[in-house]
Write a structure and sequence with these properties.
Layout (H helix, E strand, L loop, with lengths): L3 E7 L5 E7 L21 E3 L2 H11 L6 E6 H6 L1 H7 L7 E5 L8 H13 L7 E6 L1 H13 L5 E6 L2 H7 L7 E3 L2 E5 L7 E4 L9 H18 L1 H7 L8 H17 L14 H13 L6 H19 L4 H14 L10 H9 L9 E8 L2 E8 L1 H13 L1
Parallel strand pairs: 1-3, 3-10, 4-5, 4-6, 6-7, 7-10
Antiparallel strand pairs: 1-2, 8-9, 11-12
Helix pairs in contact: 5-6, 6-7, 6-9, 7-8, 7-9, 7-11, 10-11, 10-13, 11-12, 11-14
């Protein structure tokens, strides 16, 4: 039996719509003894700005100090609309950073801790993260660690953040050249998704988020996969809601990533290796493109080691190239990304562990593969 999860999102005129879909192909195993289960507040997809204002008013206690963490791009693109319609943040302290992955650093975290202290943020203060994946990862970590934790609300403004980074309480920064190597699991008090922030999102950022949606479909939902094979920048709240529920459904069964949550790392073992390599060179490249490249390699590994059919591999390759993958970077030599791959959090001992597909809509985790086999698959994809 597949568990059923319900998706809700708000529409103007107080209407609500409901989606239901059987999403998963794995059993739920009650590992309560190791705290595998932890309730995470479901994200809300809200399509009317006045409804968004109402929810923020309810979430922010009267008299609490509010700090809005954002970057300069989002401050120009989204913050004015928010400030004009949300009374709860009229008096908020705005903390504006430069955009970019390089801000996920201990140096910036220290700066933000100091800023909160100087502005007398207390345990009742609220940190509202307005931005994409970097802001949500960084702000989540700062909020979880300042005074042992203050309330964090995510307001994601990129597709990537709406369907991935702002969900599930994973926080983190890059350290020692390794992506997300320092962080904590700390549930946000709420994630509020206002899809029309995407109206002004540049197309490359749409494609970056599209990669994460393709990943969700490949590991959990073959029907959604069919909807995503043609790229579009049309704002579709129902598609965003479905992706949110796929991720949240997995997280609710495995918050601390002991088992099923590892499925969400499909494409990321190789993808993070590529991204970390370029970050170490002082170059920031698209996270989504890196994940797409990683999915191509891990799809080939799935054929060789997890019985994925050649036909489905070709379908996956075609869809990824058509919707996401852009020729904006070269595949680094495998030996250059191997140290980063070995630092992947899913590995155990000396073995390289991967999430692989058995078919579109079904993935398996913790599959150990020899380094030489990974190299062969990587180099084949890189040469195509």
């Amino acid at each position: 039996m597949c568990p059923r999860f319900d998706s809700w999102w708000h529409h103007s005129n107080e209407k609500r719509f409901r989606l239901s879909r059987d999403l998963f192909y794995f059993p739920l195993i009650p590992y309560l003894s190791d705290l595998k289960f932890l309730f995470v507040e479901p994200a809300l997809v809200i399509t009317d700005i006045s409804d968004l204002a109402s929810h923020l008013d309810m979430l922010i206690p009267s008299g609490s100090k509010v700090f809005v963490l954002t970057d300069s791009n989002v401050a120009e693109r989204c913050l004015p609309e928010l400030m004009a319609h949300v009374p709860a943040i009229e008096a908020a302290e705005i903390i504006e950073l430069d955009p970019g992955e390089e801000n996920k650093s201990l140096e910036i975290v220290t700066h933000l801790w100091a800023h909160l202290l100087e502005n007398e943020a207390d345990r009742k203060s609220v940190l509202l993260n307005l931005g994409g994946g970097v802001i949500c990862d960084l702000g989540g970590f700062v909020g979880a660690t300042y005074k042992r934790g203050i309330s964090v609300i995510h307001l994601p403004t990129s597709l990537m953040a709406m369907v991935d980074a702002a969900l599930g309480g994973k926080t983190g920064i890059d350290f020692g050249g390794v992506k997300n190597s320092v962080g904590v699991f700390a549930p946000e008090i709420s994630t509020l998704v206002y899809p029309y922030f995407l109206d002004s999102l540049p197309e490359p950022e749409w494609k970056s988020g599209w990669a994460e949606m393709l990943k969700h479909a490949l590991i959990a939902d073959p029907i959604l996969w069919k909807d995503l094979k043609v790229f579009s920048t049309e704002v579709r709240p129902e598609i965003i809601a479905l992706n949110i529920r796929i991720k949240e459904g997995i997280i609710q069964t495995d918050f601390h990533e002991y088992a099923e949550r590892k499925l969400l790392n499909f494409g990321h073992t190789i993808g993070h290796g590529i991204e970390a390599y370029y970050l170490a060179q002082g170059k920031t490249i698209s996270h989504g493109e890196c994940v797409a490249a990683g999915m191509l390699v891990e799809t080939l590994l799935s054929v060789r080691f997890n019985d994925l059919s050649f036909k489905e591999m070709e379908e996956i390759k075609s869809a990824i190239h058509a919707t996401v993958l852009l020729p904006s970077f070269e595949f680094p030599p495998f030996e250059s990304i191997l140290p980063f791959i070995k630092n992947d959090k899913k590995n155990a001992g000396q073995s390289l562990r991967f999430v692989l597909l058995q078919k579109i809509g079904e993935g398996h985790w913790n599959i150990a593969i020899e380094e030489s086999e990974v190299k062969a698959a990587y180099e084949q994809v890189a040469s195509e």
